[in-house]
């Protein structure tokens, strides 16, 4: 054992710098969504009645047949390392499910199973991007894109979208953002944080621009089964012939089957890239959890009524939340076509005084809402869109109603 005196001598000789973080960590922001959820949960555990509308996590339990498959996998001894890219049965199940829904014909060799879609995205960026590459990302964007792209040494280039266009990227804005360093275009539809769902025609125009500029495309389709009003999400590679040769689709079970904690997501890509991602994963995590992979397989291969039931409930909540928000003076909401977020404009309500304090930013607004009325939301600035706020409606109708009433009272007291 080292004595205290030895430690202090070492410290004087520079020990305090021994664990100084690497340069790449300097600009790394923690996930704003997870940070807000952690704050809400710590307030709740100290006895405060918090309405947590921060994190995008379905409030339903994971369906019983999926949990049962995990229990059976454990009893059958499926508790060992799996192949790095995932168990063949799950890779095949993803390939079957995607081929059936998209109409494209893919095989298990195109699929790599990872520890959630977030990890799949990290793998894709690490495998494709070099320092100096630019990735064009429509803003508002999901919080983790910016940080994970930066970790690869590449640079996210944010391109603005507007509430007036339901936050859809306009072709001329996309074209203007392309430079010699542009390497990749990242798109998420249905979108987190805005709920935007692009039509086939709108996506086709964006696909043509990406093809002309010889960009790779990462299409985050994790909300592809959460489209309202009978609509259907369009998978990006289906838009043009051979588009799958330059596109990586990322998705997972977290949102569709209420399986956020199981940590299973995947990438679908041409085989050479899938091999590279599998190799990367073999060095970084060995494989995703064996038990979770068996559960995810049951999710994909089993009955799908649970998906329809959750979609139905999310759609009801969407209408409820959008109507209540739209009726609030000074608040504007875009059309929410899918996912489970309302991303609303509060710009007219900034620069006002709330309980004696002047509030000028979305972050101050969310902070005051949490402190004074105990409602957790996420500031638009975390998604690259100041003046807006994201609330998740992956929460019960009762909680949503109470949260919205508190937001109304908060706004009403401003002057
Ligand atoms: N992409 C988007 C747009 C998301 O909202 C999320 C939510 N966490 C993810 C990817 C990652 O999901 P997970 O890692 O839980 O599969
Ligand atoms: N995607 C969810 C959200 O945006 C989960 C949290 C996270 O992974 O950042 O709230």
Q: Which helices and strands occur, and which strands form pairs?
A:
Elements: H1 4-12, H2 32-45, E1 51-52, H3 64-75, H4 88-102, E2 111-114, H5 117-128, E3 134-139, H6 143-151, E4 155-160, H7 171-177, E5 182-188, H8 200-212, E6 216-220, E7 247-252, E8 265-268, H9 271-284, H10 290-301, H11 305-326, E9 341-345, E10 352-354, E11 357-359, H12 362-373, E12 375-376, E13 378-379, E14 388-392, H13 397-412
Parallel strand pairs: 1-12, 3-4, 3-5, 5-6, 6-7
Antiparallel strand pairs: 2-8, 7-8, 9-14, 10-11, 13-14
Helix pairs in contact: 3-10, 4-10, 5-6, 5-9, 11-13
Bound molecules: 4'-deoxy-4'-aminopyridoxal-5'-phosphate and glutamic acid.
What's this, in brief?
This protein has 13 helices and 14 strands.
Describe this structure in words.
The protein folds into two domains: 22-61 and 306-412, Aspartate Aminotransferase, domain 1; 64-301, Type I PLP-dependent aspartate aminotransferase-like (Major domain) (Aspartate Aminotransferase, domain 2, 3-Layer(aba) Sandwich), CATH 3.40.640. The chain is an alpha/beta fold. A hairpin with a 2-residue loop joins strand 10 (352-354) and strand 11 (357-359). The termini are far apart. It has helices at 4-12, 32-45, 64-75, 88-102, 117-128, 143-151, 171-177, 200-212, 271-284, 290-301, 305-326, 362-373, 397-412; strands at residues 51-52, 111-114, 134-139, 155-160, 182-188, 216-220, 247-252, 265-268, 341-345, 352-354, 357-359, 375-376, 378-379, 388-392. The protein binds 4'-deoxy-4'-aminopyridoxal-5'-phosphate (PMP) and glutamic acid. Residues 31, 33-34, 55-57, 118, 142-144, 192 line the site of glutamic acid (GLU).
